[in-house]
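Record 1 of the preview.
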Amino acid sequence: MKKDTASSTAYTVVHGILHTKQNPQLSYLVQEDTAIACSKILCASKEGQKRLEELENPLKSKLLPLLEWLLMPGITLNYVLRKKYIEEKVHKAIKNGITQIINIGAGFDTLTYRLSSLYPNINFIEIDHPATSTEKIKAFNEKDSIENLSFISADLSKVSLEKTLHNNDKFDSMNKTLYISEGVLMYLPKEAVNELFNSLRRLTGKGSIFIFSCMEPKNSSKNNIRPLLYYYLKVKKEEYLWYIADTEVHSFINENNYSLLDIADSNTYRKKYLDSNFIGTLHQGEYIVVTEVN
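->
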């Protein structure tokens, strides 16, 4: 990501969610409050307004499926489905006693913003690069200020997650905590991924839950990403750096002293959320993993 601009991927994800909302066959997958929050985010910046104009332009809107096919087949719907899955896990974790939720590299995700009013006794914290966080804070202005939701602007490539949280008075290390890192770890080198697991364990200890996404290696037969996508990400300076095969996830989690609670892929989403007659393409090679600190 360029240091002085919000993440291009963050805009793309929100754009994709709203595009899905416009699809008569798939609109049921996107809740109305999610669509409203996504629109609010895009309205707050010139780049976001440009994305909204593309959605309102029939020709440009029809180009999205073609671009997706050229780069990453099924990814737009995947954004929606993986977020539904994560949200279900968050609701379940709160029911089971989680009292603090921290979204690391939150981008323009609307989950904590929406849930903070639904769960006033839960402490919600978002952390992201200043360039992206600034745009999001601008979208959710002071009129939307919610006491139990905090936004932390931090470049985690320069300051550690532990220092970032310990320096924030909203963070409570005694709270039973759930961490989310959706669409983030693939942009980190392996050493940084390992350190993140260590940091979360040190921050809030045993029983902490970590939900994250990861990707199959480039050459995996389970990965349907096109070569053009890798070139595009390189140009945008948002290249993927870390991959892990689904067959290696369990051992990787154990090595980091976590327990594997669940793992979901496109087949999971198809069974849980899509009509049995759905024939569209789903993104292949990305997983959502739910873990707990031992």
